[in-house]
Amino acid sequence: SVRELCVKLESNKELLSRQLTSKSMDYERVLGELEDIKSEAELLKKQLSSERLTVQNLETLLATSRDKEFQSHLTSREKDSEIQLLKDKLTLAESKLNSYNR
């Protein structure tokens, strides 16, 4: 009976040892996966930071472009006004010239 108990205990010991080995292997595998996930997360953080910077640069470029377009529009309107003023002066001068020639 003591012998049976020793055999049973030895069997349980071997079973527990195999389970411990299996759990240790699982633990190492999970640790490896965790490291992979951490590396991927770090890479994604860097990528996100880079993309945010790109978006910021594009927004700045867009704002600059809009400002230039607005300034061009203002300049164009000023030139149109100057042209119209010169046309009006020319018409007036031609009218005066015609009056003098009569």
Compact overview of the structure:
The protein is an all-alpha fold and 102 residues long. It is built from one helix and no strands.
Structure description:
The structure is a single chain. The chain has 102 residues and is mainly α. 98% of the residues lie in helices and 0% in strands. The protein contains 1 helix and no strands. It has one helix at residues 2-101. The radius of gyration is 43 Å and the shape is rod-shaped. It starts with a helix and ends with a helix. 0% of the residues are buried. The model has no long low-confidence stretch (mean pLDDT 97). It comes from Hypotaenidia okinawae. Belongs to the CEP135/TSGA10 family. Residues 27-61 form a coiled coil. Keywords: Coiled coil, Cytoplasm, Cytoskeleton. This is Centrosomal protein 135.
